[in-house]
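WARN no homologs supplied; continuing
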Amino acid sequence: MDFDYGNPTTDGSCDPRTATLLEIRSGLRDNSMADLDERPRSPTPASQSLRQGSLITIRMQEICRSLSANYSRLLNEVVFVSGTTTGDDRKTVKTFKRTLEGLEANTVLSILWRESPYITHNELSYDGHAKLFNEMPLTCYCLAVHLASSKHEVAATNSRVRLIVAAGAAFGLINKKQLSSTKIHIAGTEFLHEFMIRLGFENARSCAQILWQDEGRISAAGLPFTPRIAASHV
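OK structure emitted
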């Protein structure tokens, strides 16, 4: 442990508090390592403390892990068991499944669900959100432009989005409608809506279990959570 030894007094001596700290340090040096090892070790106050930042970060990481696991699990339990509607071969189906399990596919499906007719403007505006593509038909390219981090990433993003849409369409999550020879309108289906609603409830339950599993400890640590929403409400 490092101590702050303060400043010496004007006559060159140390103040009483500093002198005491020096005596303690000197005494520790005189003890052999074997003697120190034989002494019972008790946790220091610092090791017993709960730091807000660490607790919050740990729980947020657990939430992210849990939400990702819920998405993958429900894909297998709800979507993949229904089989494809396009008659693709086993290798293609395997590629489609792997594609839908990715984080970007989760994002694309979420956007398509929010843009679908199954979600109203009032439902989105309740928390201050709005439709993103209200004024134009939603296509893979429009979605790629929205998701790309820069104009240089649009082409690569568009290729990935097209594969995700093809995979989603194969499992009945996305409907594709030919608008012209080069433009295809994409929209979330009722099946996607049902999947997202179930996923939403599963995610809410997971959040409640992680955030409010021990209300007393959270409150004692002063974490900025309000454990008043019971899990039964979600």
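Residues 52-79 form the longest helix (28 residues).
OK
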